[in-house]
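Data deposition worksheet. Section B asks for the primary sequence of the deposited chain exactly as it was used as input, without tags or linkers unless they were present during the calculation. Section C holds the resulting structure in token form. Section D is free text for depositor observations; keep each observation to a single sentence. Incomplete worksheets are returned to the depositor.
Section A, Depositor: J.P.
Section B:
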Amino acid sequence: MGPPLLAIENRSSPASLTDAYPSKLDNLIVERPKIFASVSMGEEKPFNFLRVLCDGVIAGGTAGVVVETVLYPIDTIKTRLQAAHGGSKIHWKGLYSGLAGNLAGVLPASAIFVGVYEPTKQKLLKMFPENFSAFAHLTAGAVGGLAASLIRVPTEVIKQRLQTGQFASAPDAVRLIVAKEGFKGLYAGYSSFLLRDLPFDAIQFCIYEQLRIGYKIAAKRELNDPENAVIGAFAGAVTGAITTPLDVMKTRLMVQGSQNQYTGLLNCAQTILREEGPAAFLKGIGPRVLWIGIGGSIFFGVLERTKLLLSQRDSSKSEPPKQE
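Section C:
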């Protein structure tokens, strides 16, 4: 049997318990039950916003480019499935159509997302109680997604129109979209994009961070690359499945061009339901879950490894030079 937490002998009558046992009571910490996973980081280091921002930009850009390059063909198949009406045939050629132009947008978008997410998350974790860390992750994910959407949406519009064979190259797509639809054509489906991506980013990063914290507490050590990748794959697959109906509507709005088949998000949902039935909202769910699941594995694996390498570099730079 272990020693008692606090033993008080009634030999005298001190003015207070603090007078009798100052050292023990000063160090006594009462822990409340935690609603969400949380982890104490020990002695806190000073928050360097610029360093966290720059490291996030580099790590996010690297992870985004790797994922997009590896999984682009699956994304192309998913887009063509969702854009097909009724019994339209799916074309299997040109699965890498528009990759170069898409990478030009993915790199800054991923860099901005993680660059905003990381410092926002760390600031919010200091503001919220420790057992409410999930709210910090949810909020930071939504804020990062909102910032990145300014680049993500035009990139997505151009990519999906190239994937569906409407244009031959990214420069042609930009020129013709602006000529026919105006600058707002590059932001077609913006409301549906936000409706899909803000919840997606918030939920995916919250699931990932919470699972990672819980696993770290259980294992009592830092996670390795395969473990980060598995957690990232699970978080991505679950979130991808949940948000598939929103993704279908976003795709339809983005690829309709100047035809204006749908007047808005609600009209799009009503038209799909009336003409194609409820099952149409799950079009492309297989490739989407596969794509985002594998993508989550690669993205978070590369992200955590890059962050670790940058952290080690920063630590070596901040260490004072050794005296001989």
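Section D:
Residues 102 and 159 are 6 Å apart (CA to CA).
DSSP finds eleven helices and no strands in the chain.
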